[in-house]
């Protein structure tokens, strides 16, 4: 999968997460859920734009800054979402938990496609080359498993 395809998959998973949340909350809280999910998407959409701009020069960077920003955003969203759910505020916690859930789901789908594609004789994901440091490899496999970097 290419990077734009990963972002599209994450957006679809987030929309499904929000739809599922709309079915879980009472009808009077649904407008708050929709407003919260739209507000939650402001920062990720700016970060997506930055990542797509930075992506062509990743091979020349020691470590892409957008990976750190995504990790920080997902950690903050997970923490804030769990705090909101612990306080009983399901309409505001559910959209925040959708960001890490969509990222995890996208990573798992990408890993599944990369395992299945060699069995059928075609490759959906470009081959990765070169040795990588362990921390970069872990960050890439979790957040951007298709990143190609020539060392």
From TrEMBL:
Residues spanning the membrane: 34-53, 65-85, 97-122
Keywords: Membrane, Transmembrane, Transmembrane helix
Protein name: Uncharacterized protein
Organismal lineage: Bacteria, Thermotogati, Deinococcota, Deinococci, Deinococcales
